Task: structure prediction
Amino acid sequence: MTVWNPWHGCRKISEGCVNCYMFRRDAEVGRVSTVVQKTADFHALTRKKRDGSYAVPSGETVFACMTSDFFAEEADLWRPQIWDMIRERRDLSVHIITKRIGRFREGLPEDWDGGWDHVTLCATCENQRRADERLPILLNLPLRHREIICEPMLEGIGIRPYLAEGKIERVTCGGESGEGARECRYEWILDMREQCREAGVPFTFKQTGANFVKDGRRFAIPRRLQMEQARKAGINLP
Result:
């Protein structure tokens, strides 16, 4: 079965490994990804310790659905409960990652108004077509904070017109991991960095991916080294 649990799969929630459903992990443990079900950790964000304090400390940054999607149709029934938890935890910084940005208004809380200060919406776009579909929507939604995530980055992507609006707070790029990963080329990463530099937008090269091409050479990079190698490139923009 596939779980719909925004805080599932984390060794430590503050480290940001927060997922709704994990197709690759499902396959690894023999689950069928067409059945969606909540787990016992569904309420992890508001769970309290014996002394009455929250298990997730105040001030932490939490990423929802880092490898899946917060606005999946199958989870519509449960999402209001997640909004309630996010509303309660205004002491956290919550980043919601989605490729279904067109469904953002489905079940939106009545008190959302122009957005909540502690919530950032991160729209994913892996290629130019998806960028041109999703980023205009991102720019026109009622939000306080917006970010773009190009991961996995599958081609060079031009986003200058969207950055020019002055509403994007960060761009994150990275390659694809896992068996059969599609290539990620360093020149695509560098071009995106340059677009961000021109616009004065912070940029993060998160991971190389497993199939990384640089200076005409192809590198098979193990998952455990992908983030480290990206950091070593030293190209992030604060």
Summary: The CA atoms of residues 1 and 29 lie 10 Å apart. Residues 58-233 form one domain. The chain has one domain: 58-233.
